[in-house]
């Protein structure tokens, strides 16, 4: 197995407070004036039997009254799909065509997060190795670490806690093996490296790269690049040669396993739970696709776009009891053809909150906080949405014409609700996001 387990106990999550795994800018003046995100304490604690809870289930009528005007907001466009459930009991509090499948955009990453933490311990790490055949060929065997860093020794990696190619190169030098060429072993994955369901402009772009078993810095040729690479495996091989002090070494790739030589160097990724948090906070598509393939590999399925999608569905059904349907085309939500319903996402959030698996339950603490962290840091700062600042924790989603939001929020009376809202026919992303935020903020203030 290329995925190894760290012999350490996972630390218990303490409420919904954000852990600082990513480099983040200092809070703006607006962010400093919003509440610290502390309203989630206890939501990821060990679940109790539904009958034992003393918190009343929010009123369906009150929820409907609170959300009715917000659901009619012009910014949402002509179609809104929504579902709100009690996160602890799963009972439906509001349904507006919630069972209809639609493009979820990046809220789909919730499925990848739950699936990978259902099959791997939060402390598992992904191992990248270098093998020598003793005759001058050094093989870099990629196992799907999406944050492996090409930063030089002493330089800060793009992703906190990342394994380093510089460390791998140092180990190779200490091993004193002959290196005349570098081969990148891509055999861990199969099929297309770019989904046929993605738009042509998605790769290369700031948000999309080809998905290969060996890549560095989220698929970038250089840690400081904004645009990612269409050939990140070869770019990583060339970066390794540079870090080895041998930039002129030829670099080739192979889709056939070459794992027969002696292992002369190895590095391990940040823990899976850290990768999940980095994916969710920054909505990182390359991390998402890499983690979806870890799910496929754990199930001995084909590590490809369709293989990973099928494996995620099977794991969520078999491990968490949630059927998300067969509409997934990828693990990130970048494909406009992806289909999942708001009801499937609220069912998944309910399962996450109630899970006895500490890693799965920890997803609640990895979600962006309104006006505070990740993709929600610049939102909920003003206007009608400001009431949700520090109180809403959710995954965002955006494609052309599609704006979505799915997550958790506490009501003033102590209820915990899960929600998923899709505005999938809008023509103004900014207006749709503002309307979604204002809608969910009403849950945060509803004395339901």
UniProtKB/TrEMBL annotation:
Residues 26-54 are annotated as: Disordered. The keyword Phosphoprotein does not apply. Keywords: Carboxypeptidase, Hydrolase, Protease. GO terms for molecular function: serine-type carboxypeptidase activity. It holds the Pfam family Peptidase_S13. One of its GO terms (biological process) is peptidoglycan metabolic process. Residues 35-54 have a biased composition (Low complexity). Belongs to the peptidase S13 family. NCBIfam families: PBP4. PANTHER family: D-ALANYL-D-ALANINE CARBOXYPEPTIDASE, PENICILLIN-SENSITIVE CARBOXYPEPTIDASE A. This is D-alanyl-D-alanine carboxypeptidase / D-alanyl-D-alanine-endopeptidase (Penicillin-binding protein 4). The lineage of its organism: Bacteria, Bacillati, Actinomycetota, Actinomycetes, Jatrophihabitantales.
